[in-house]
Amino acid sequence: MNNLEIVKAGLNKRYAKERRFKFYGIFSISLSLLFLFFLLFDIGAKSIPAFTQTYINLDIEFDKKSMKLQDQDSYSEETLFSASYSKLGRNALYKLFPEVTERKQKKALRQMLSSGARYDLRDAVLENNDYVGTTQNLWVLAGDDIDAFVKGLIDRNIPEADRRVKDYQVKWVDILEAQNKIERRFNINFFTSGDSREPEQAGILGALKGSFYTMLVTLLLSFPIAVSAAIYLEEFAPKNNWWIDIIEININNLAAVPSIVFGILGLAVYINVFGVPRSAPLVGGLVLTLMTLPTIIISTRAALKSVPPSIREAALSIGASKMQVITHHVLPLAMPGILTGSIIGMAQALGETAPLLMIGMVAFVADIPQSILDPATVLPVQVFIWSDSPERGFIALTSAAIVTLLVFLFFMNLIAIVLRKKFETRW
Amino acid sequence: MEISDNMDLDQEISKTVGSPLLESKVRIACRDVNVFYNKNVQAIFNVNLDIGKNQILAMIGPSGCGKSTLLRCFNRMNDTIEDCVVDGLIELDGENIHSKKIDPVVLRANVGMVFQKPNPFPKSIYDNVAYGPRLHGLTQNNSELDDIVEESLTKAGLWKETKDRLNKPGTGLSGGQQQRLCIARAIAVKPEVILMDEPTSALDPIATATIEELMSELKSAYTIVIVTHSMQQAARISDRTAYFHLGRLVEVDETGHIFTNPNHSLTENYITGRFG
Questions:
Q1: Which domains are assigned to chain A?
Q2: Which ipTM score applies to this complex?
Q3: Cβ–Cβ below 8 Å for A308 and B119
Q4: B253 - beta bridge partners?
Q5: Closest by Cα among A226, A215, A213, A211 to A341
Q6: Is B105 on the interface with A (CB under 8 A)?
């Protein structure tokens, strides 16, 4: 057999190997795509109910007596704010169903409306002061059980004893539906309110703003610190120096430290020593900065290293100083890599819950944070809190919060990709 | 070619080195230059060499003989290499380039360099040439800068080809054009000396011819030191030729003399192609 024949004989085997490898690749890509689609589809489908909310149309009589207002022609803002609105919704319901007299049934009728309905009515009066003393046709937020029933999450065919919605409530809903007085509307509440114990009143805005502020602090601190550290280590630090070697080893180790350890550190140092306000995005951002630093440092160093030495030599030989070489040539060329590393670090930080446990960001915060010093929670923590809540409405809210988290992440990535493209198109 | 002992080589060289020093019109002067890497590896041994004004000096020799290392001493590019120590005296126009008074930035503005591989910046052709003048603040306004760019590109023989595409990336040019762009970039800051480290080794013969022609023209205004692996190139363009071997300057003289009547057998073997 001559050489050519030997080569030919082995050819099939070689190609078979190649085909096998291609198959493995395609198989693993399909599998991961399948998982991804399953995940997105499941979360997406579960989150849909959270984006609508059931409202009941009622003729609300704003009578001064039930509002506990004195008989006057006009009222100051404070008086209207502190007036009682709790009876208005139920009175309207009693009027709609006058046949209900039994105490237990009356209570069930009251529960048709959300306990938060009174605040909506208050806001309506504050907006239109002349409502007082009149009767207005308004859409009022329904209670979470009714909401779940209207959305089909509670089956009317299961025995009444196992059902959160009683038979007479089902009857009332049917009556209201027949009169077109019950309706699912877009859940604007979800995007404009903070957390609540009642699922129909709970919103994501608090956590969203908390995440935004936390990420802002993290980015503003970690990006400049990490990039400067990487530039010093890569471009200025003496090579073969044991002191620098120790720093390098420590940075690499820092990347592998479990994130909860950073939380303990944050509690001990930032909160106990420096007195940074607990639960605030500032302290969350500080802790996440520690976590993000090594990721950005390592990727920035890799990006700086990959800039061809010929570019540095070219600039040096014309008479650029070291700093000019870096700012004019090396950094712009390394920027895409630096941004990629930063976005990986930021995405990690965005999804982090464990270190925030320690610094009090895993708390029920109903108020929407207005600055980096207000108590706040973040999106992944909100997901955790809602998934832990027993009410049925929180199932959909949990998925909706995850969707919000993913959309947030998507926009963060989008910004990074746009910036990266901008730097890459410089040839 | 066997060398029994480097001591012997050093002794031989002292007899064969030719005429390393010039009597007048000296631009660069090297006296007892030694270069070390990592403290114990010596790359250059006791080089004494003068480079004259408006001359082209070609440095030839086998790979690893130290000619590029010596070239990079002239603009202190070796400073950027960790653990590289340059010992001895190197003078540019009578001034020690290692003295505290001389800043490497100023020195490099005065001693331009062109590298083996064309290395234009990933910027436009205009920005490539304008980089040096902008960096050193050589111009008052944009029209002056435009003039410098045009002048440099014209000198580098690239103006006709690129005047309509100054805003196109410099990296989009052909290899020969890129190298000429690098030359234009180097002469835009009006240096006295241009160092060229195998500038045509990555180019085809036509591009090489263009650049050689360019060097002969540039000679009237600049001092050029070129490292080359091509004997023909050294013979064609240089006024003086220096042959290096194992970090030693074996022989240096008028190019005609080196190529017709070398003193040392190493030089002869190298230029006739029997070695190297």
A1: 55-185 (no CATH), 205-423 (1.10.3720.10)
A2: 0.87
A3: yes
A4: B241
A5: A226
A6: yes
